[in-house]
Write a structure and sequence with these properties.
Elements lengths: L7 E6 L3 H12 L4 E4 L11 E2 L7 E2 L13 H7 L4 E3 L4 E3 L2 E2 L2 H18 L7 H4 L5 H14 L8 H7 L6 E3 L3 H7 L6 E2 L4 E7 L2 E6 L2 E10 L3 H5 L4 E3 L4 H9 E4 L1 E8 L10 E4 L5 E2 L2 E2 L2 E5 L6 E7 H10 L1 H16 L7 E6 L12 E4 L7 H5 L6 E3 L12 H19 L1
Parallel strand pairs: 1-2, 1-12, 2-9, 6-16, 10-13, 12-23
Antiparallel strand pairs: 3-4, 5-8, 6-7, 10-11, 11-12, 14-22, 15-20, 15-21, 16-19, 17-18, 19-20
Bound molecules: flavin-adenine dinucleotide.
The site of flavin-adenine dinucleotide (FAD) has 41 residues, from helix 1, strand 15 and helix 13.
Length: 414
Amino acid sequence: MGESTWDYDAIVIGAGAAGLAATHVLHDAGRSVICLEAADRIGGRSYTDTSIFGVPFDLGGHWLHYADVNSFIPIGQDLGFDLYAEPGHIHLAGSLATDGVLDRVAGVSDELHRQGDADNDMSMAEAFEPKDEVERTALLLKALSAGRDLDEISMHDWHTGALEDNNWFCRQGFGAIVTANAAGLPVKTNTPVTAVRRKADGVDVETADGTLRAGHVVVTVSVGVLASEGITFDPPLDASKQNALSLITMGVYNHAAMLFDVTALPMAPDTWVSYPIEEISGSMARGGGILCNVSGSGLCSFEHVGNFARELEDAGEEAAIDFALTRMVDVFGADIRKGFRKGHATRWGSNRFTQGAYSGTRPGGAGLRAALRSPHAEAVHFAGEAMNEGETVCISGAHKEGLRAANEVIDLLS
Ligand SMILES: Cc1cc2nc3c(=O)[nH]c(=O)nc-3n(C[C@H](O)[C@H](O)[C@H](O)COP(=O)(O)OP(=O)(O)OC[C@H]3O[C@@H](n4cnc5c(N)ncnc54)[C@H](O)[C@@H]3O)c2cc1C
C-alpha cells in the first residue's frame, strides 16, 4: 500500500499557467510528477501564436496586469524577454482622450468601488446607469476585464479583485513567457483526463491511454470544464464546490485580430481605441474596443465580450473580422482598408478544453473562491485562475495558485 503502488507522487491535470507552475515546483522539489494536458500544446489560455500572422499574437491573455506583483515580469526579464509598461494611449471618440476624460473614466471606477463596498451585493448593471459615451466606455472596460455582461458581474467580487490600471506588455507575447518558463518540464500533451478516483492508497487518474496512480492530484482545468463535468470525480465534488461552480462561471471574451501594414496605422504602438458603442442595452455591450498596433507590429485586436461575443462567435470568423474592420473604418476612415492584410478571430466560447475565456462571479457569489480552492478527499487539489482572490482572472494569479497547490502537496508528502 502507499507510495509503492504510485506511478507518481503527483499528477497535474492541465498545462496552463497554473498547471505548469505546479509541475515546476514539484519537479524542482525532486518529486516524481507528470502533467497531463488534453490539447496538443501547452499554455492553455496563455499562448502566443506566430504562425497565423508571422508576428506574435496572444490567443488568450496579453496584458500583464497588476504589474507591481505580476509574477511574469521578473520571470520574463530573467528569460530575456522584452517587457515594457503599457504606454496608456487612449483614443476615444476620434481623438486621444484628454486628462479630463480619463478622470471621468476613473470616476466611474471610484463610484463602482463604493457600490462594491456596500452591504448588499448587486450586479454592475444595477449599480451604475451610464449617462453618456464616456461612461459607457468606462463600463465597457469593466465588462472586458470581467469577461461578461454587466448584469453577470458581482459588485462585491469585482471590488475585491478589480484590475488596477497598471499593465505591462511583452513584445514577444505574454504566452511566450509562460511556455518558455516551462521548458524541460514533464508534460504529456494530447492526453485528456476523463476521471479522478480516490482510492485507499492514492488517486487513480483515467485517460484514454490507461490509468495512472499518484499520491496526489492537482486539477487545474477551468471552472467551465469542472462545471460541465468533463472530468468525473469519485467521490463526487461536494455541495460547497458545486455551489461555487454555479456562481463562479466562465464568460466569453474574444479577439478579432487584424494585421495591417504598419505604415497604414495612424496611431502609436499599443493605443487603445474606443468608439461610440451602439448602446449598453439590457446590460450587454454591443461592441468592444481595439488594441491597435500591438508592440508596433501592425496587429490590431478588436476585444469584445459577453453575449455579444457569443453572437459574433456564432456568426463565424468572417463576420467577426468584418465587424472589427468596419469599426476601424468608422474610426480612421475607409483608406485604412487598403493596409489590411489578414484577420483571425478566436473562439473561446466553443473551446471544449476551456468552455469559455475566463471566470467571473455572478451576483451573490462573492467569497466563494475559497470553496473552489479547498482540497477534495484529502488528495485532490485545485488550482487555476478562478481560485485567486487578488489577481482574479489573470495568468499571474493562475501561476500563484499553481505554486500554492504544489506546496500544499509537498507538505502532505513530507
Ligand atoms: C481571450 C482571453 C483574453 C485574456 N486576457 C488576459 C490578459 O490580458 N491578462 C491576463 O493575465 N489574463 C488574461 N486572460 C485570462 C488568462 O489567460 C487565464 O486566466 C489563464 O491563462 C488561466 O490559466 P489556468 O492555468 O488557470 O487555466 P488554463 O490555461 O485553461 O489551463 C488549463 C489546461 O487544462 C487543459 N484541460 C482541460 N480539460 C482537460 C482534461 N480533461 N484533461 C487534461 N487537460 C485538460 C486545457 O487544455 C488547458 O491547457 C485572458 C483569457 C482569454 C481567453
